[in-house]
Amino acid sequence: MTLRCTFRICLFLLLTALFTLIFFNVKTDAEIIPETIVEQRVQEEEKAEEIVVEPIEEESYPMSEEDMNLISLVTMAEAEGESELGKRLVIDTILNRIDHPNWPNSGREVIYQKSQFTSVWNGRIERCYVRDDILNLVKEELKSRTNTSCLFFRTEKYSSYGTPVLKEGNHYFSSY
After folding, report:
1. Cα(52)–Cα(102) distance, rounded to whole angstroms?
2. How many CA within 13 A on the CB side of residue 122?
3. Which region holds residue 72: left if phi is over 0, alpha if psi is between -120 and 50, else beta?
4. Is 164 left (phi over 0), alpha (psi -120 to 50) or beta?
5. By CB neighbour count within 10 A (0-12 exposed, 13-18 middle, 19+ buried), where does 145 fall?
6. Which percentage of the chain shows pLDDT scores above 90?
7. How far apart are the C-alpha atoms of 3 and 147, rounded to whole Å?
8. What is the strand order of the sheet 152-155 is part of?
9. What DSSP assignment string belongs to 26-45?
10. Is 132 left (phi over 0), alpha (psi -120 to 50) or beta?
11. What is the C-alpha separation between 13 and 22, in angstroms, rounded?
């Protein structure tokens, strides 16, 4: 068969198909949609219009997000391997200092005060990150503290200053 003959056959088939579509009004697959699917789509659109999305109110906290993140970071650095209670007590120590007249009144100032937190001056804080679970503990402690008296903590033994309050895990917590 020659190229001319092949071309003529292809053209004939194409024209026949086009004529059949136009003359007999045959629908293509894209145009054939069962009625049930159309009805389902209409119902879904109607339901979507009925749904009213109310804006979620963000909770407010008595400190900046930056300070909450910093407290979370120090808590990870100081108490990563400790129990949840141990982490809460570290958080409370920082929050109690912020509220106490002998310390600055912001998280950043309390945490970066000279020689206060080992993880700050030995660089451990730089190798940590803000974990969601610890950040949530910070937020919970801001709402309702586990301990309102702890102002100091250390490992190995109670501090030589202050009054011993309790031992949790590897930390000894003290107060004035």
Report:
1. 50
2. 9
3. alpha
4. beta
5. middle
6. 61
7. 93
8. 152-155, 171-175, 163-168
9. PPPGGG---HHHHHHHHHHH
10. alpha
11. 14
Residue that has been written with the tokens 């700050």 in this structure: 120
- Given the structure tokens 């629908």, which residue do they identify? 27
Q: By the 8 A CB rule, do 96 and 151 touch?
A: yes
Cα pseudo-dihedral 71, 74, 75, 81, rounded to 10: 160
pLDDT tens digits for range 80-131: 999 999 999 999 999 999 999 999 999 999 999 999 999 999 999 999 999 9
